[in-house]
Amino acid sequence: MQEVKLYFQKKNGFYTKEAFKTLRSNIEFCGDDVKVIAVTSCMAHEGKSSVAMELAKSFAEAGNMTLLIDADMRKSVLIGRYKTGAVKYGLSHCLIGRNQFTDSVCETDIPKLYVLFSGPVPPNPSELLGSRKFVEMLDDMRKSFTYIIVDTPPLGSVIDAAVVARSCDGTLLVIENNAISYRFAQKVKEQLDKTGSRVLGVVLNKINMSVKGYYGHYGKYYGRYYGKYYGKYYGEYGDESQEKQEKEEQLHIKLQKEFYEQQKREAKEKKEQERKEKRQRRKQKIKHIAIESGKYVLAAAAAVLLVGGLLFGGLETAKAMGKRSLLNTADSRRPELMSAIGNSELTKEEEMRWQDGWVKYQDTIYQYNQDILTFLIMGIDKNSDAAEVKEGTDGGQADALFLAAMNPKDGSIKIIGINRNTMTDIDIYNGEGAYITTTQAQIAVQHGFGNGMEKSCEYQKQAVQRLFYNLPIHGYAAVNMSAVPTINDALGGIDVTVMEDLTKIDKNLVEGSRIHLSGESAFWYVKYRDTDVFGSADRRLERQRQYLIGFIDTAQQEISSNLSVVLDLYNAVSPQMVTDISLDEAAYLASLLPGYRFDEKDFYLMEGETVMGEEFEEFYPDEDALYKLILDVFYEKVE
Fold first, then answer.
1. 480, 481, 482, 462: which is closest to 472 by C-alpha?
2. What are the tens digits of pLDDT across the range 336-350?
3. 3-state secondary structure of 426
4. Angle at 213 between CA 210 and CA 216, to 5 degrees
Protein backbone atom coordinates (compact mmCIF):
# COMPACT_ATOMS: atom_id res chain seq x y z
CA MET A 1 0.00 0.00 0.00
CA GLN A 2 1.23 3.48 -0.88
CA GLU A 3 1.32 6.38 1.54
CA VAL A 4 0.55 10.02 0.79
CA LYS A 5 0.04 13.25 2.68
CA LEU A 6 -2.96 15.28 1.54
CA TYR A 7 -2.56 19.01 1.09
CA PHE A 8 -5.59 21.27 1.62
CA GLN A 9 -5.20 24.84 0.38
CA LYS A 10 -7.40 26.31 3.09
CA LYS A 11 -9.03 25.22 6.29
CA ASN A 12 -12.79 24.75 6.18
CA GLY A 13 -14.88 27.26 8.10
CA PHE A 14 -17.98 26.71 10.17
CA TYR A 15 -20.43 26.71 7.27
CA THR A 16 -18.48 24.19 5.21
CA LYS A 17 -17.94 21.79 8.10
CA GLU A 18 -21.59 21.85 9.08
CA ALA A 19 -22.68 21.44 5.46
CA PHE A 20 -20.63 18.27 4.99
CA LYS A 21 -21.72 16.90 8.37
CA THR A 22 -25.31 17.40 7.24
CA LEU A 23 -24.60 15.79 3.88
CA ARG A 24 -22.92 12.83 5.59
CA SER A 25 -25.84 12.38 7.99
CA ASN A 26 -28.38 12.53 5.16
CA ILE A 27 -26.52 9.81 3.28
CA GLU A 28 -26.38 7.65 6.41
CA PHE A 29 -30.16 8.01 6.74
CA CYS A 30 -30.56 6.70 3.18
CA GLY A 31 -30.04 3.21 4.58
CA ASP A 32 -27.43 0.58 5.30
CA ASP A 33 -27.44 -0.50 1.65
CA VAL A 34 -25.96 2.83 0.47
CA LYS A 35 -22.20 2.38 0.83
CA VAL A 36 -20.76 3.06 -2.64
CA ILE A 37 -21.61 6.60 -3.80
CA ALA A 38 -20.83 8.20 -7.17
CA VAL A 39 -20.34 11.97 -7.30
CA THR A 40 -20.85 13.79 -10.61
CA SER A 41 -21.90 17.18 -12.03
CA CYS A 42 -23.47 18.63 -15.16
CA MET A 43 -20.41 20.53 -16.39
CA ALA A 44 -16.77 20.97 -15.49
CA HIS A 45 -15.65 23.37 -12.72
CA GLU A 46 -18.75 22.94 -10.55
CA GLY A 47 -16.69 21.59 -7.64
CA LYS A 48 -17.65 17.90 -7.69
CA SER A 49 -14.10 16.72 -6.91
CA SER A 50 -13.89 19.02 -3.88
CA VAL A 51 -17.28 17.77 -2.68
CA ALA A 52 -16.16 14.15 -3.13
CA MET A 53 -12.97 14.74 -1.16
CA GLU A 54 -14.66 16.65 1.68
CA LEU A 55 -17.45 14.07 1.91
CA ALA A 56 -14.94 11.21 2.11
CA LYS A 57 -12.98 13.14 4.73
CA SER A 58 -16.18 13.72 6.75
CA PHE A 59 -17.00 9.99 6.74
CA ALA A 60 -13.46 9.16 7.85
CA GLU A 61 -13.53 11.73 10.66
CA ALA A 62 -16.75 10.09 11.89
CA GLY A 63 -14.81 6.85 12.39
CA ASN A 64 -15.67 5.05 9.12
CA MET A 65 -13.12 3.25 6.98
CA THR A 66 -13.48 5.34 3.83
CA LEU A 67 -12.04 5.07 0.31
CA LEU A 68 -12.12 7.86 -2.27
CA ILE A 69 -11.75 6.61 -5.87
CA ASP A 70 -10.68 9.10 -8.51
CA ALA A 71 -12.58 7.79 -11.55
CA ASP A 72 -12.26 11.06 -13.48
CA MET A 73 -9.48 9.51 -15.55
CA ARG A 74 -9.81 11.92 -18.45
CA LYS A 75 -9.08 15.09 -16.48
CA SER A 76 -8.22 14.31 -12.86
CA VAL A 77 -7.72 17.22 -10.48
CA LEU A 78 -7.40 15.28 -7.22
CA ILE A 79 -3.85 14.11 -7.78
CA GLY A 80 -2.61 17.63 -8.44
CA ARG A 81 -4.75 19.43 -5.89
CA TYR A 82 -4.47 17.33 -2.74
CA LYS A 83 -1.40 15.09 -2.71
CA THR A 84 2.25 15.77 -2.03
CA GLY A 85 4.86 13.23 -3.04
CA ALA A 86 4.83 10.67 -5.81
CA VAL A 87 1.99 8.19 -6.48
CA LYS A 88 3.25 5.25 -8.50
CA TYR A 89 0.04 3.32 -9.19
CA GLY A 90 -3.59 4.27 -9.80
CA LEU A 91 -7.06 3.15 -10.93
CA SER A 92 -6.07 2.64 -14.56
CA HIS A 93 -3.34 0.17 -13.48
CA CYS A 94 -5.95 -1.84 -11.56
CA LEU A 95 -8.46 -1.93 -14.42
CA ILE A 96 -5.95 -3.23 -16.97
CA GLY A 97 -4.87 -5.96 -14.54
CA ARG A 98 -1.39 -4.65 -13.90
CA ASN A 99 -1.89 -4.15 -10.15
CA GLN A 100 -4.25 -5.17 -7.37
CA PHE A 101 -6.18 -2.35 -5.74
CA THR A 102 -4.56 -3.21 -2.40
CA ASP A 103 -1.19 -2.20 -3.89
CA SER A 104 -2.53 0.96 -5.56
CA VAL A 105 -4.61 2.45 -2.74
CA CYS A 106 -2.90 5.29 -0.81
CA GLU A 107 -3.12 5.59 2.96
CA THR A 108 -3.41 9.29 3.82
CA ASP A 109 -2.40 11.31 6.86
CA ILE A 110 -6.11 11.55 7.79
CA PRO A 111 -7.01 8.51 9.93
CA LYS A 112 -9.23 5.97 8.14
CA LEU A 113 -9.18 7.91 4.84
CA TYR A 114 -7.71 6.15 1.80
CA VAL A 115 -7.47 7.36 -1.79
CA LEU A 116 -7.16 5.49 -5.08
CA PHE A 117 -5.89 8.08 -7.59
CA SER A 118 -6.71 7.88 -11.30
CA GLY A 119 -3.33 6.84 -12.66
CA PRO A 120 -2.18 7.40 -16.27
CA VAL A 121 -4.87 8.51 -18.75
CA PRO A 122 -6.04 5.43 -20.75
CA PRO A 123 -7.29 5.63 -24.36
CA ASN A 124 -10.61 3.97 -23.43
CA PRO A 125 -11.78 5.17 -19.99
CA SER A 126 -15.48 4.44 -20.58
CA GLU A 127 -14.79 0.82 -21.52
CA LEU A 128 -12.55 0.30 -18.49
CA LEU A 129 -15.10 1.78 -16.08
CA GLY A 130 -17.87 -0.31 -17.61
CA SER A 131 -15.87 -3.54 -17.48
CA ARG A 132 -16.48 -6.55 -15.23
CA LYS A 133 -13.08 -5.87 -13.69
CA PHE A 134 -14.34 -2.58 -12.21
CA VAL A 135 -17.48 -4.23 -10.77
CA GLU A 136 -15.47 -7.06 -9.23
CA MET A 137 -12.98 -4.56 -7.76
CA LEU A 138 -15.80 -2.60 -6.10
CA ASP A 139 -17.19 -5.83 -4.63
CA ASP A 140 -13.78 -6.62 -3.09
CA MET A 141 -13.44 -3.07 -1.77
CA ARG A 142 -16.80 -3.32 0.02
CA LYS A 143 -15.24 -5.95 2.29
CA SER A 144 -12.52 -3.54 3.47
CA PHE A 145 -14.26 -0.16 3.53
CA THR A 146 -17.46 1.08 5.16
CA TYR A 147 -17.97 3.85 2.57
CA ILE A 148 -16.58 4.25 -0.94
CA ILE A 149 -16.87 7.64 -2.67
CA VAL A 150 -16.30 7.60 -6.45
CA ASP A 151 -15.43 10.92 -8.13
CA THR A 152 -16.59 10.73 -11.78
CA PRO A 153 -16.35 13.07 -14.82
CA PRO A 154 -19.19 15.58 -15.51
CA LEU A 155 -22.13 13.68 -16.97
CA GLY A 156 -23.03 16.61 -19.20
CA SER A 157 -19.68 16.27 -20.99
CA VAL A 158 -18.94 12.52 -21.18
CA ILE A 159 -20.86 9.33 -20.43
CA ASP A 160 -18.36 7.91 -17.88
CA ALA A 161 -20.40 8.95 -14.83
CA ALA A 162 -23.47 7.03 -16.05
CA VAL A 163 -21.31 3.96 -16.63
CA VAL A 164 -19.90 4.16 -13.08
CA ALA A 165 -23.29 4.92 -11.52
CA ARG A 166 -24.65 1.55 -12.63
CA SER A 167 -22.22 -0.16 -10.25
CA CYS A 168 -22.84 2.17 -7.27
CA ASP A 169 -25.54 2.23 -4.61
CA GLY A 170 -26.42 5.85 -5.30
CA THR A 171 -25.34 9.06 -7.00
CA LEU A 172 -24.88 12.65 -5.81
CA LEU A 173 -25.27 15.45 -8.36
CA VAL A 174 -23.19 18.58 -7.66
CA ILE A 175 -24.55 21.82 -9.17
CA GLU A 176 -22.85 25.21 -9.05
CA ASN A 177 -25.08 27.99 -7.74
CA ASN A 178 -26.51 30.22 -10.53
CA ALA A 179 -24.40 28.47 -13.18
CA ILE A 180 -26.51 25.60 -14.53
CA SER A 181 -30.05 25.82 -15.85
CA TYR A 182 -32.85 23.79 -14.32
CA ARG A 183 -33.54 22.17 -17.69
CA PHE A 184 -29.94 21.03 -18.12
CA ALA A 185 -29.89 19.55 -14.62
CA GLN A 186 -33.10 17.67 -15.40
CA LYS A 187 -31.52 16.21 -18.53
CA VAL A 188 -28.54 14.97 -16.53
CA LYS A 189 -30.84 13.44 -13.93
CA GLU A 190 -32.81 11.69 -16.68
CA GLN A 191 -29.56 10.23 -17.98
CA LEU A 192 -28.83 8.85 -14.50
CA ASP A 193 -32.35 7.46 -14.24
CA LYS A 194 -31.82 5.54 -17.47
CA THR A 195 -28.85 3.72 -15.91
CA GLY A 196 -31.00 2.59 -13.00
CA SER A 197 -28.85 4.51 -10.54
CA ARG A 198 -30.48 5.82 -7.39
CA VAL A 199 -30.16 9.60 -7.27
CA LEU A 200 -29.58 10.40 -3.60
CA GLY A 201 -29.87 14.16 -4.03
CA VAL A 202 -28.29 17.37 -5.25
CA VAL A 203 -25.49 19.39 -3.65
CA LEU A 204 -25.79 23.12 -4.35
CA ASN A 205 -22.18 24.30 -4.45
CA LYS A 206 -20.21 27.57 -4.52
CA ILE A 207 -22.67 29.70 -2.56
CA ASN A 208 -20.90 32.87 -1.44
CA MET A 209 -21.33 33.16 2.32
CA SER A 210 -19.15 36.23 2.82
CA VAL A 211 -20.37 38.90 0.39
CA LYS A 212 -20.29 42.39 1.87
CA GLY A 213 -23.53 44.13 2.70
CA TYR A 214 -26.58 43.27 4.71
CA TYR A 215 -26.61 39.56 4.11
CA GLY A 216 -22.87 39.37 4.83
CA HIS A 217 -23.61 40.82 8.25
CA TYR A 218 -26.56 38.48 8.58
CA GLY A 219 -24.35 35.54 7.66
CA LYS A 220 -22.06 36.32 10.61
CA TYR A 221 -25.10 36.37 12.89
CA TYR A 222 -26.27 33.11 11.38
CA GLY A 223 -22.90 31.47 12.10
CA ARG A 224 -22.74 32.81 15.65
CA TYR A 225 -26.29 31.71 16.35
CA TYR A 226 -25.80 28.16 15.19
CA GLY A 227 -22.38 27.88 16.78
CA LYS A 228 -24.02 28.87 20.06
CA TYR A 229 -27.03 26.62 19.42
CA TYR A 230 -25.04 23.46 18.85
CA GLY A 231 -22.47 24.28 21.55
CA LYS A 232 -24.98 25.04 24.28
CA TYR A 233 -28.04 22.98 23.52
CA TYR A 234 -26.97 19.91 21.61
CA GLY A 235 -25.94 18.02 24.72
CA GLU A 236 -29.35 18.68 26.28
CA TYR A 237 -31.31 17.88 23.12
CA GLY A 238 -32.64 14.56 24.39
CA ASP A 239 -34.09 16.20 27.51
CA GLU A 240 -35.98 18.95 25.67
CA SER A 241 -39.69 18.67 25.12
CA GLN A 242 -41.03 17.86 21.67
CA GLU A 243 -42.61 21.32 21.42
CA LYS A 244 -39.31 23.08 22.10
CA GLN A 245 -37.52 20.91 19.56
CA GLU A 246 -40.08 21.79 16.93
CA LYS A 247 -39.76 25.52 17.68
CA GLU A 248 -35.99 25.38 17.39
CA GLU A 249 -36.27 23.47 14.13
CA GLN A 250 -38.76 25.97 12.70
CA LEU A 251 -36.48 28.84 13.68
CA HIS A 252 -33.58 27.04 11.99
CA ILE A 253 -35.56 26.67 8.76
CA LYS A 254 -36.78 30.27 8.88
CA LEU A 255 -33.28 31.69 9.36
CA GLN A 256 -31.88 29.49 6.62
CA LYS A 257 -34.62 30.52 4.20
CA GLU A 258 -34.22 34.23 4.97
CA PHE A 259 -30.48 33.97 4.58
CA TYR A 260 -30.75 32.23 1.21
CA GLU A 261 -33.31 34.71 -0.12
CA GLN A 262 -31.24 37.68 1.02
CA GLN A 263 -28.20 36.16 -0.67
CA LYS A 264 -30.03 35.86 -3.97
CA ARG A 265 -31.28 39.44 -3.71
CA GLU A 266 -27.75 40.70 -3.13
CA ALA A 267 -26.48 38.70 -6.10
CA LYS A 268 -29.22 40.16 -8.31
CA GLU A 269 -28.46 43.70 -7.17
CA LYS A 270 -24.76 43.21 -7.80
CA LYS A 271 -25.43 41.94 -11.30
CA GLU A 272 -27.76 44.85 -12.03
CA GLN A 273 -25.11 47.30 -10.84
CA GLU A 274 -22.58 45.69 -13.16
CA ARG A 275 -25.01 46.06 -16.06
CA LYS A 276 -25.54 49.75 -15.28
CA GLU A 277 -21.80 50.35 -15.17
CA LYS A 278 -21.38 48.54 -18.48
CA ARG A 279 -24.11 50.64 -20.10
CA GLN A 280 -22.48 53.80 -18.76
CA ARG A 281 -19.12 52.79 -20.22
CA ARG A 282 -20.82 52.17 -23.55
CA LYS A 283 -22.43 55.60 -23.48
CA GLN A 284 -19.08 57.25 -22.77
CA LYS A 285 -17.48 55.32 -25.59
CA ILE A 286 -20.24 56.31 -28.02
CA LYS A 287 -19.95 59.94 -26.96
CA HIS A 288 -16.22 59.85 -27.57
CA ILE A 289 -16.71 58.46 -31.07
CA ALA A 290 -19.28 61.12 -31.85
CA ILE A 291 -17.00 63.93 -30.67
CA GLU A 292 -14.03 62.62 -32.64
CA SER A 293 -16.03 62.24 -35.82
CA GLY A 294 -18.05 65.43 -35.42
CA LYS A 295 -21.16 63.52 -36.44
CA TYR A 296 -23.73 63.58 -33.70
CA VAL A 297 -26.37 62.76 -36.27
CA LEU A 298 -24.98 59.25 -36.48
CA ALA A 299 -27.48 58.15 -33.84
CA ALA A 300 -30.34 59.01 -36.15
CA ALA A 301 -28.81 56.80 -38.85
CA ALA A 302 -28.70 53.74 -36.57
CA ALA A 303 -32.18 52.44 -37.37
CA VAL A 304 -33.58 49.28 -35.86
CA LEU A 305 -35.99 47.15 -37.87
CA LEU A 306 -38.53 45.35 -35.70
CA VAL A 307 -37.46 41.90 -36.90
CA GLY A 308 -34.04 40.29 -36.70
CA GLY A 309 -32.29 43.17 -34.94
CA LEU A 310 -31.25 44.70 -38.29
CA LEU A 311 -29.36 47.87 -37.42
CA PHE A 312 -27.72 50.33 -39.79
CA GLY A 313 -25.24 53.18 -39.90
CA GLY A 314 -21.83 53.70 -38.33
CA LEU A 315 -18.16 54.48 -38.79
CA GLU A 316 -15.24 52.18 -39.54
CA THR A 317 -13.90 52.67 -36.03
CA ALA A 318 -17.31 51.93 -34.56
CA LYS A 319 -17.56 48.74 -36.64
CA ALA A 320 -14.41 47.25 -35.15
CA MET A 321 -15.44 48.23 -31.64
CA GLY A 322 -18.93 46.92 -32.23
CA LYS A 323 -17.70 43.51 -33.33
CA ARG A 324 -15.60 43.09 -30.19
CA SER A 325 -18.44 44.32 -28.00
CA LEU A 326 -21.06 41.99 -29.47
CA LEU A 327 -18.87 38.90 -29.26
CA ASN A 328 -18.14 39.68 -25.59
CA THR A 329 -21.76 40.42 -24.66
CA ALA A 330 -23.23 36.91 -24.40
CA ASP A 331 -23.52 35.41 -20.91
CA SER A 332 -22.06 32.02 -21.89
CA ARG A 333 -19.88 30.60 -24.63
CA ARG A 334 -22.33 27.93 -25.82
CA PRO A 335 -25.65 26.29 -24.87
CA GLU A 336 -25.61 23.63 -22.17
CA LEU A 337 -26.61 20.60 -24.23
CA MET A 338 -25.65 17.12 -23.10
CA SER A 339 -22.87 15.42 -25.04
CA ALA A 340 -24.93 12.45 -26.15
CA ILE A 341 -28.63 13.10 -26.74
CA GLY A 342 -31.12 10.25 -26.61
CA ASN A 343 -29.65 6.89 -27.56
CA SER A 344 -26.67 8.37 -29.42
CA GLU A 345 -23.89 6.75 -27.39
CA LEU A 346 -20.28 7.53 -28.28
CA THR A 347 -18.14 5.03 -30.13
CA LYS A 348 -14.62 4.18 -29.00
CA GLU A 349 -13.13 6.29 -31.80
CA GLU A 350 -15.38 9.26 -30.93
CA GLU A 351 -14.38 9.09 -27.27
CA MET A 352 -10.71 9.32 -28.19
CA ARG A 353 -11.11 12.48 -30.26
CA TRP A 354 -14.00 14.03 -28.31
CA GLN A 355 -13.81 17.75 -27.54
CA ASP A 356 -15.58 19.68 -24.81
CA GLY A 357 -18.84 21.15 -26.08
CA TRP A 358 -19.50 18.62 -28.83
CA VAL A 359 -22.96 17.05 -29.08
CA LYS A 360 -23.92 13.74 -30.69
CA TYR A 361 -27.45 13.40 -32.02
CA GLN A 362 -28.75 10.66 -34.31
CA ASP A 363 -25.22 9.46 -35.17
CA THR A 364 -24.09 12.99 -36.13
CA ILE A 365 -21.65 15.10 -34.10
CA TYR A 366 -22.24 18.84 -33.80
CA GLN A 367 -20.37 21.80 -32.34
CA TYR A 368 -21.73 25.23 -31.42
CA ASN A 369 -21.16 27.90 -34.07
CA GLN A 370 -19.28 30.53 -32.08
CA ASP A 371 -19.64 33.05 -34.92
CA ILE A 372 -23.44 33.24 -34.76
CA LEU A 373 -24.91 36.46 -33.39
CA THR A 374 -28.27 36.00 -31.66
CA PHE A 375 -30.76 38.75 -30.82
CA LEU A 376 -33.99 38.68 -28.84
CA ILE A 377 -36.82 40.75 -30.36
CA MET A 378 -39.76 41.50 -28.07
CA GLY A 379 -43.17 42.98 -28.80
CA ILE A 380 -44.44 44.46 -25.52
CA ASP A 381 -48.13 44.80 -24.68
CA LYS A 382 -47.94 48.56 -24.14
CA ASN A 383 -49.80 51.40 -25.86
CA SER A 384 -47.40 54.23 -25.05
CA ASP A 385 -43.82 55.38 -25.44
CA ALA A 386 -41.17 53.39 -23.57
CA ALA A 387 -41.02 54.73 -20.01
CA GLU A 388 -39.82 53.52 -16.65
CA VAL A 389 -42.51 52.32 -14.24
CA LYS A 390 -42.50 51.29 -10.61
CA GLU A 391 -41.30 47.74 -10.25
CA GLY A 392 -43.93 45.14 -9.57
CA THR A 393 -46.01 43.70 -12.40
CA ASP A 394 -46.56 46.78 -14.60
CA GLY A 395 -43.60 46.34 -16.94
CA GLY A 396 -45.80 44.94 -19.72
CA GLN A 397 -45.98 41.39 -21.04
CA ALA A 398 -43.91 40.19 -23.98
CA ASP A 399 -46.74 39.18 -26.31
CA ALA A 400 -44.31 38.63 -29.19
CA LEU A 401 -40.96 36.88 -28.75
CA PHE A 402 -38.52 36.10 -31.55
CA LEU A 403 -34.91 34.95 -31.63
CA ALA A 404 -32.97 36.17 -34.68
CA ALA A 405 -29.72 34.36 -35.49
CA MET A 406 -27.22 35.86 -37.94
CA ASN A 407 -24.85 33.20 -39.29
CA PRO A 408 -21.83 34.77 -41.07
CA LYS A 409 -20.65 31.37 -42.35
CA ASP A 410 -23.59 30.90 -44.73
CA GLY A 411 -24.90 34.48 -44.75
CA SER A 412 -28.31 33.50 -43.39
CA ILE A 413 -30.70 35.09 -40.93
CA LYS A 414 -32.91 32.57 -39.13
CA ILE A 415 -35.80 33.49 -36.83
CA ILE A 416 -37.47 31.40 -34.13
CA GLY A 417 -40.95 32.35 -32.95
CA ILE A 418 -41.58 31.61 -29.26
CA ASN A 419 -45.14 31.03 -28.07
CA ARG A 420 -45.96 33.64 -25.41
CA ASN A 421 -47.68 30.90 -23.35
CA THR A 422 -44.58 28.70 -23.22
CA MET A 423 -44.26 27.28 -19.70
CA THR A 424 -40.76 27.76 -18.31
CA ASP A 425 -38.89 28.96 -15.22
CA ILE A 426 -39.37 32.67 -14.52
CA ASP A 427 -38.11 34.78 -11.61
CA ILE A 428 -40.60 36.53 -9.34
CA TYR A 429 -39.76 39.95 -7.83
CA ASN A 430 -41.59 42.19 -5.38
CA GLY A 431 -42.43 45.89 -5.77
CA GLU A 432 -38.95 46.89 -4.60
CA GLY A 433 -37.27 44.74 -7.24
CA ALA A 434 -36.14 42.11 -4.71
CA TYR A 435 -36.04 38.51 -5.86
CA ILE A 436 -38.67 36.29 -4.21
CA THR A 437 -38.63 32.90 -5.92
CA THR A 438 -38.45 31.05 -9.24
CA THR A 439 -41.54 29.30 -10.53
CA GLN A 440 -42.92 27.84 -13.75
CA ALA A 441 -45.22 30.18 -15.63
CA GLN A 442 -45.94 31.63 -19.07
CA ILE A 443 -42.72 33.09 -20.44
CA ALA A 444 -44.45 36.33 -21.54
CA VAL A 445 -45.14 37.48 -17.97
CA GLN A 446 -41.43 37.67 -17.06
CA HIS A 447 -41.07 41.12 -18.67
CA GLY A 448 -43.78 42.55 -16.42
CA PHE A 449 -41.77 42.12 -13.22
CA GLY A 450 -39.19 44.76 -14.16
CA ASN A 451 -39.30 48.51 -14.58
CA GLY A 452 -40.63 48.48 -18.14
CA MET A 453 -37.17 49.37 -19.47
CA GLU A 454 -33.75 47.68 -19.34
CA LYS A 455 -34.45 45.65 -16.20
CA SER A 456 -37.60 44.11 -17.71
CA CYS A 457 -35.69 43.27 -20.88
CA GLU A 458 -32.86 41.64 -18.92
CA TYR A 459 -35.36 39.53 -16.98
CA GLN A 460 -37.03 38.43 -20.21
CA LYS A 461 -33.70 37.69 -21.85
CA GLN A 462 -32.70 35.43 -18.94
CA ALA A 463 -35.99 33.52 -19.16
CA VAL A 464 -35.51 32.90 -22.89
CA GLN A 465 -31.91 31.83 -22.34
CA ARG A 466 -33.02 29.30 -19.73
CA LEU A 467 -35.65 27.92 -22.12
CA PHE A 468 -32.97 27.46 -24.78
CA TYR A 469 -30.45 25.77 -22.45
CA ASN A 470 -28.52 28.97 -21.66
CA LEU A 471 -28.12 29.96 -25.29
CA PRO A 472 -25.86 33.03 -25.67
CA ILE A 473 -27.89 36.12 -26.62
CA HIS A 474 -25.85 39.07 -27.90
CA GLY A 475 -28.47 41.81 -27.75
CA TYR A 476 -32.15 42.64 -27.46
CA ALA A 477 -34.71 45.11 -28.78
CA ALA A 478 -38.12 45.54 -27.15
CA VAL A 479 -40.75 47.50 -29.09
CA ASN A 480 -44.15 48.47 -27.70
CA MET A 481 -46.96 47.04 -29.82
CA SER A 482 -48.46 50.51 -30.28
CA ALA A 483 -45.54 51.31 -32.60
CA VAL A 484 -46.70 48.77 -35.21
CA PRO A 485 -48.96 51.14 -37.24
CA THR A 486 -46.20 53.76 -37.53
CA ILE A 487 -43.50 51.24 -38.45
CA ASN A 488 -45.84 49.50 -40.90
CA ASP A 489 -46.73 52.74 -42.66
CA ALA A 490 -43.10 53.84 -42.81
CA LEU A 491 -42.63 50.99 -45.30
CA GLY A 492 -45.84 51.77 -47.16
CA GLY A 493 -47.77 48.85 -45.66
CA ILE A 494 -47.60 45.05 -45.94
CA ASP A 495 -49.62 42.69 -48.15
CA VAL A 496 -51.10 39.59 -46.45
CA THR A 497 -53.78 36.97 -46.95
CA VAL A 498 -55.91 37.16 -43.79
CA MET A 499 -55.50 33.88 -41.91
CA GLU A 500 -58.59 34.06 -39.63
CA ASP A 501 -61.76 36.07 -39.26
CA LEU A 502 -60.98 39.21 -37.24
CA THR A 503 -63.91 41.33 -38.40
CA LYS A 504 -65.17 41.70 -34.82
CA ILE A 505 -62.20 44.01 -34.20
CA ASP A 506 -61.57 45.33 -37.74
CA LYS A 507 -64.07 45.00 -40.60
CA ASN A 508 -61.23 44.88 -43.14
CA LEU A 509 -59.80 41.65 -41.72
CA VAL A 510 -61.96 39.09 -43.53
CA GLU A 511 -60.60 35.54 -43.49
CA GLY A 512 -59.11 34.51 -46.84
CA SER A 513 -59.06 38.01 -48.31
CA ARG A 514 -55.85 39.51 -49.74
CA ILE A 515 -55.40 42.98 -48.29
CA HIS A 516 -52.81 45.69 -47.96
CA LEU A 517 -52.33 46.27 -44.21
CA SER A 518 -51.99 49.87 -43.12
CA GLY A 519 -52.39 51.83 -39.89
CA GLU A 520 -54.62 50.25 -37.26
CA SER A 521 -55.35 47.18 -39.40
CA ALA A 522 -51.69 46.19 -39.14
CA PHE A 523 -51.81 46.74 -35.38
CA TRP A 524 -54.85 44.52 -34.84
CA TYR A 525 -53.57 41.85 -37.19
CA VAL A 526 -50.39 41.25 -35.15
CA LYS A 527 -51.80 42.16 -31.72
CA TYR A 528 -55.37 40.92 -31.34
CA ARG A 529 -56.44 37.53 -30.02
CA ASP A 530 -59.77 36.38 -28.63
CA THR A 531 -58.88 35.00 -25.19
CA ASP A 532 -62.25 33.24 -25.04
CA VAL A 533 -61.19 30.99 -27.93
CA PHE A 534 -58.81 28.13 -27.09
CA GLY A 535 -55.48 28.31 -28.92
CA SER A 536 -55.82 32.00 -29.78
CA ALA A 537 -52.16 32.69 -28.91
CA ASP A 538 -51.03 29.91 -31.27
CA ARG A 539 -53.01 31.35 -34.18
CA ARG A 540 -51.81 34.87 -33.44
CA LEU A 541 -48.20 33.64 -33.52
CA GLU A 542 -48.88 32.21 -36.99
CA ARG A 543 -50.19 35.62 -38.07
CA GLN A 544 -47.16 37.36 -36.59
CA ARG A 545 -44.89 34.98 -38.47
CA GLN A 546 -46.73 35.70 -41.72
CA TYR A 547 -46.61 39.46 -41.14
CA LEU A 548 -42.92 39.52 -40.22
CA ILE A 549 -41.93 37.52 -43.29
CA GLY A 550 -43.75 40.11 -45.41
CA PHE A 551 -42.25 42.93 -43.35
CA ILE A 552 -38.68 41.74 -43.90
CA ASP A 553 -39.22 41.21 -47.62
CA THR A 554 -40.74 44.68 -48.03
CA ALA A 555 -38.03 46.31 -45.91
CA GLN A 556 -35.25 44.72 -47.97
CA GLN A 557 -36.80 45.97 -51.21
CA GLU A 558 -37.43 49.48 -49.90
CA ILE A 559 -33.99 49.92 -48.37
CA SER A 560 -32.20 48.65 -51.47
CA SER A 561 -33.82 51.43 -53.50
CA ASN A 562 -34.00 54.16 -50.86
CA LEU A 563 -31.64 54.31 -47.89
CA SER A 564 -33.69 57.11 -46.29
CA VAL A 565 -36.16 54.40 -45.26
CA VAL A 566 -33.65 53.54 -42.55
CA LEU A 567 -34.08 56.97 -40.97
CA ASP A 568 -37.87 56.73 -41.27
CA LEU A 569 -37.88 53.40 -39.46
CA TYR A 570 -35.57 54.62 -36.73
CA ASN A 571 -37.64 57.74 -36.12
CA ALA A 572 -40.79 55.63 -36.03
CA VAL A 573 -39.59 53.05 -33.54
CA SER A 574 -37.13 54.80 -31.20
CA PRO A 575 -39.63 56.50 -28.81
CA GLN A 576 -41.25 53.14 -28.12
CA MET A 577 -38.15 50.96 -28.10
CA VAL A 578 -35.68 49.72 -25.47
CA THR A 579 -32.44 48.12 -26.67
CA ASP A 580 -29.00 47.28 -25.35
CA ILE A 581 -27.46 47.38 -28.85
CA SER A 582 -25.03 50.28 -28.85
CA LEU A 583 -24.13 52.57 -31.71
CA ASP A 584 -20.82 50.86 -32.47
CA GLU A 585 -22.52 47.45 -32.45
CA ALA A 586 -25.14 48.82 -34.84
CA ALA A 587 -22.39 50.00 -37.17
CA TYR A 588 -20.82 46.55 -37.23
CA LEU A 589 -24.16 44.85 -37.94
CA ALA A 590 -24.86 47.33 -40.73
CA SER A 591 -21.61 46.33 -42.45
CA LEU A 592 -22.72 42.68 -42.42
CA LEU A 593 -26.29 43.02 -43.68
CA PRO A 594 -25.67 43.44 -47.44
CA GLY A 595 -24.26 39.91 -47.56
CA TYR A 596 -27.13 38.29 -45.67
CA ARG A 597 -30.29 36.64 -46.98
CA PHE A 598 -33.60 35.70 -45.39
CA ASP A 599 -35.99 33.07 -46.71
CA GLU A 600 -39.43 32.02 -45.51
CA LYS A 601 -38.09 28.52 -44.74
CA ASP A 602 -35.70 30.13 -42.26
CA PHE A 603 -38.59 31.16 -40.00
CA TYR A 604 -39.26 28.49 -37.36
CA LEU A 605 -42.03 28.03 -34.80
CA MET A 606 -41.43 25.88 -31.72
CA GLU A 607 -43.23 22.55 -31.71
CA GLY A 608 -45.29 21.56 -28.70
CA GLU A 609 -48.76 21.25 -27.20
CA THR A 610 -51.16 23.88 -25.86
CA VAL A 611 -53.34 22.76 -22.95
CA MET A 612 -55.75 24.53 -20.65
CA GLY A 613 -54.28 25.21 -17.23
CA GLU A 614 -56.21 26.15 -14.10
CA GLU A 615 -56.84 29.67 -15.42
CA PHE A 616 -54.88 30.24 -18.65
CA GLU A 617 -53.60 28.39 -21.68
CA GLU A 618 -50.20 26.74 -21.28
CA PHE A 619 -47.84 25.76 -24.08
CA TYR A 620 -45.43 22.90 -23.39
CA PRO A 621 -42.61 22.63 -25.94
CA ASP A 622 -41.61 19.28 -27.41
CA GLU A 623 -38.19 18.74 -25.78
CA ASP A 624 -36.83 16.53 -28.57
CA ALA A 625 -37.96 18.99 -31.23
CA LEU A 626 -36.43 21.88 -29.26
CA TYR A 627 -33.10 20.04 -29.08
CA LYS A 628 -33.22 19.46 -32.83
CA LEU A 629 -34.14 23.11 -33.48
CA ILE A 630 -31.19 24.37 -31.43
CA LEU A 631 -28.84 22.06 -33.30
CA ASP A 632 -30.24 23.09 -36.70
CA VAL A 633 -29.98 26.82 -36.07
CA PHE A 634 -27.03 27.29 -33.73
CA TYR A 635 -24.77 24.29 -34.33
CA GLU A 636 -22.74 22.93 -37.25
CA LYS A 637 -21.68 19.41 -38.12
CA VAL A 638 -18.21 18.26 -37.15
CA GLU A 639 -16.49 16.92 -40.25
1. 462
2. 777 655 556 778 888
3. strand
4. 30
